Amino acid sequence: MLKYKDAALPAAERAEHLLSLMNVEEKVGQLVQPFGWQTYENRGGTVTLTEDFKEQVKNGGVGSLYGVLRADPWTGVTLENGLSAKEGAEAVNQIQRYAVENSRLGIPILIGEECSHGHMAIDGTVFPVPLLLGSTWNVDLYREMCRAVAAETRAQGGAVTYSPVLDVVRDPRWGRTEECFAEDPYLIGEFAAASVQGLQGESLDSESSVAATLKHFVGYGSSEGGRNAGPVHMGWRELLEVDLYPFKKAVEAGAASIMPAYNEIDGVPCTVNAELLDGVLRKQWGFDGMVITDCGAIDMLAAGHDVAEDGMDASIQAIEAGIDMEMSGAMFGSYLLQAAREGKLAEEVLDRAVLRVLTLKFKLGLFEKPYADPQRAEQVIGSAEHKALAQRLAEEGIILLKNENQTLPLAPGSGKIAVIGPNADQGYNQLGDYTSPQPSEKVATVLKGIQARLQNENRHVLYAPGCRIKGDSREGFETALACAEEAETVILVMGGSSARDFGEGTIDLKTGASKVTDDSWNDMECGEGIDRMTLGLAGVQLELMQEIRKLGKRLIVVYINGRPIAEPWVDEHADAILEAWYPGQEGGHAIARVLFGDVNPSGRLTVSIPKHVGQLPVYYNGKRSRGKRYLEEDSKPRYPFGYGLSYTTFAYGNLRISRTSMTAEESVLVTVDVTNTGDMAGSEVVQLYISDAVSAVSRPFMELKGFAKVALEPGETKTVSFEIGAEQLQYIGRNLKPEVEPGQFRIHVGRHVNDTVSCELTVREAE
C-alpha cells in the first residue's frame, strides 16, 4: 500500500508522502478552484459532466470546486434546473468519482460551499442571518445551528464552508452588515468559537462536520465610508485589539481555514499582507490550516489595488505572502504553472501551499470517504428538526424596540388586523443575501404567520402591500388605506431587502399578487456590494406610514432588514416597534408568536442604532475622546448596544465582588441577583462591562467582557456570576503586547450598556 493511502498514519505524514509523488502540474492543480456549478449540466434530472472539467482533471487535476450546489441568480441555478437534496449528493459523487478514478494519484476534490445562515443549496434550511443570530445572545443555540448546517452540507458532499463572517461592524451603511454578528469584538469572539465548534464538531472526518473558513481577515467591516472593500485606516493596536480578536478566538477553537479580506490596511491589501498571513496568523497564533482568497481578490491586486503589474505578478505575490488556494482559480490556474517552469516561483513556496491543501483533505477523511450518501441527504436536509430550530432562533433574536402603553402583546379579541407593507408577504425579502431559491410554500411570511396563528380564532386578517421597498409608486396607497380604515390594529411590515432578482417579477400593489413582466426589477437595497448613503427607509415607505397614521389606528411596526434603520418619525409615532432583521424561512411564525405573546421577546441589539446617519460612527465602544455632540444633536444613539425590551420587567440587585483588590495573576468573582418583577415568564440578557479608569493609551469608556441569557418565571430570582481575570482586564499596550495595568477598574452589570449597576476593583502590583 502506498504510504499516503494508509489511514492509520497522521494527516501531515500522508500529505508529505503524496506531495513527494506529484509533478508540478498536479501540484498547481491542487491550488485551483473552478466554479463548481460549471462542471456539470443537468438535463431533466440527468447530470452530465462537462468536457472542460474532464479535461482539467486529466491535465493535472482540480484541487477544489466552489459552489457545486450553490443556487442563486449569479449561478443561474433555479428551482426548475437545480438539484434536489438527493440529486445534489448524487452529482457530487459523480464529480468525485471521475476525479478519483481519472487522475493519476486519485486525489479527491475539496467541495467548498456557502453556509453563512444555511447551506446555499436547493432544499437547504434557511436560518436567520448572522445579525439576528447575534441578537439572540444565545451562543449554545447558535452552536446547535452550526451542527445542523454542517450536517446538511456534508450530507451532500460539501466538506468546507466559507463561514463564519467575523467582521466587526463599524459603519452600518455597509451592505454586508447583515452577515455580521455585532459591532463588539468580544461578542463576535464568543460566536466565532461556537461556530468552529459547531461546524467542525469533534472530528473533521465525521459525516456531520465541515471545515470552517473564517472571513474576512481582516478589517473588512471598517472600510472607508462603509463602502464594500474600501480602504481601512487603522493602526496596529486597534487592529490587534478589535478586528483581529474574533479571529484569534476562532483559531484557538481549531478553525481549519481562513479567507483574507478584499480591503487594504494602511496601503497593503490583505491578500498579500505577509505580516498578517504569516507573522500574526501562523507565527504568533500557530495557525496550521489552509488560506484561501476571496473570489477575484488576486485579480484586484493588478486591477483595483494596483500593487501588481499583471496577473503573473499578482499570483506570485499572493502565494509568497501565504495564500494556499485561489477561490475561482482564474489567476493561479493561468500563471502558477508558467511561473514555476520559468523559475519565478520557488519550489518550496509551491510545495508549502500544496501541503496545506492536502493535509486538510486528509483531515477531512476525503481519501477514505469521498462520496456522500444520497439517502442520508434526503433525510437530513430541510428536516423538521432543523425547521423548528430556525424558528426558535428567530424567536430569540427578534428585538422589541418600543412598546408604548403595553401595545404588545396583542390580546385575544382585539378586532380586525390589517397587515400592510412591502415585506408583509414577500418571502425572499426576509431571507437575506446568500440565499438559494425557495418555493413559496416553504417560507412563512409575516402575513402567513399571523393567519396561521389566528386560524382557530376566526379573526379576519386584511392585507395590502401598499408600496415596494424602492421606487416612488403610490399606486397601492389607496388599497392599503382602505384596509387600515377597516381594521382596529395595523401591523406595518417595512424595511429592506437583500433578495437578488430571482425572476419572480414585480408585485401588484393593488392586490398583492405577483406580476411577472419582461422588465428586470429589484428591490434589493442591502447585501454584498449594496452600500447606502443613508439609513432611512427607501422609496415611499415612510410616506405610506404617515398616511396610515392619520387614521388614528393602533400602529405596530415590524422591521425586516439587513442593517439598522434610522427613522425618527417612526420612533416617535409608532405604538410598538419590532426589529426582526432577516429572520429566515420560519420568520413569519416567529414574528406572529412574538406579536401575540406566545413568545416573550428576548433579543438584544448587537449594533447601536443612530438617530440620524450623520451621527455615525455610533458604535458603543469608541474612545472616550471621541467628543460630546454636534450642533444639531448629541452623539448618543437612538437605541444603544445591548438594548431590547420585554413583556415583563427585570430588577438588578445585590451586586457584589468576592474581593475589591487583586493582582494580574489572580481573579475575582462578580455576582448579581436578577429578578423577574413582572407577571410573565421571560429571558434577560445580563451584560458585563468593564471600564479602565486610567491607562497608558486611550481606551473606550466601557467594553463588553461577559454576558448570560437567563430564563426567569414571574417573581423568580437567579444569581448570575462572572469571573474576572487577566483576560477581561488586559488591553494592547504601547509595546503592542497584551498587558494588565495596575490601577482602578469599574465593573458594570446590567441590561444594556447605558443601564447598569457598578462596583470598583483595584488591580495592584504583584508582590
What does this protein look like?
The chain is α/β, with parallel strands linked by helices. The chain is 29% helix and 19% strand. α7 (185-200) links the parallel β6 (160-161) and β7 (211-217). α6 (139-155) runs antiparallel to α15 (384-397), α11 (311-321) packs across α12 (330-341) and α16 (446-454) packs across α20. The model has no long low-confidence stretch (mean pLDDT 96).
Tell me, rounded to a whole number, the average pLDDT: 96
Widest sheet, order of strands: 4-5-6-7-8-11
Structural class by sheet pairing and helices = alpha/beta
Shape: globular
Strand content: 15-25%
Sheet with the most strands? 6 strands, parallel
Radius of gyration using CA atoms only = 26 Å
**First and last CA, distance:** 62 Å
Q: Can you tell me the residue ranges where pLDDT is under 50 for at least 5 consecutive residues?
A: none
Tell me the helix content. Answer: 25-40%
SS elements, strand count:
30
Query: Helix count, per DSSP?
Result: 21
What structural keywords apply?
alpha/beta; globular; 6-stranded mixed β-sheet; 767 residues; 21 helices; 6-stranded parallel β-sheet; single chain
Q: How would you sum up this structure in a few lines?
A:
The protein is of the alpha/beta class and 767 residues long. The chain is built from 21 helices and 30 strands.
Structural topology:
Elements: H1 11-21, H2 24-30, E1 32-33, E2 40-43, E3 46-49, H3 51-58, E4 64-66, H4 85-102, E5 110-113, H5 130-135, H6 139-155, E6 160-161, H7 185-200, E7 211-217, H8 236-252, E8 257-260, E9 264-265, E10 268-269, H9 274-284, E11 290-291, H10 297-302, H11 311-321, E12 326-327, H12 330-341, H13 347-363, H14 374-380, H15 384-397, E13 399-403, E14 417-420, H16 446-454, E15 461-464, H17 477-486, E16 489-495, E17 506-507, E18 514-515, H18 541-549, E19 554-560, H19 568-573, E20 576-579, H20 587-595, E21 650-657, E22 661-663, E23 668-676, E24 682-692, E25 703-712, E26 717-724, H21 726-729, E27 731-732, E28 738-739, E29 743-752, E30 755-764
Parallel strand pairs: 1-12, 4-5, 5-6, 6-7, 7-8, 8-11, 14-15, 14-16, 16-19, 19-20, 22-30
Antiparallel strand pairs: 2-3, 9-10, 13-20, 17-18, 21-23, 23-26, 24-25, 24-29, 27-28, 29-30
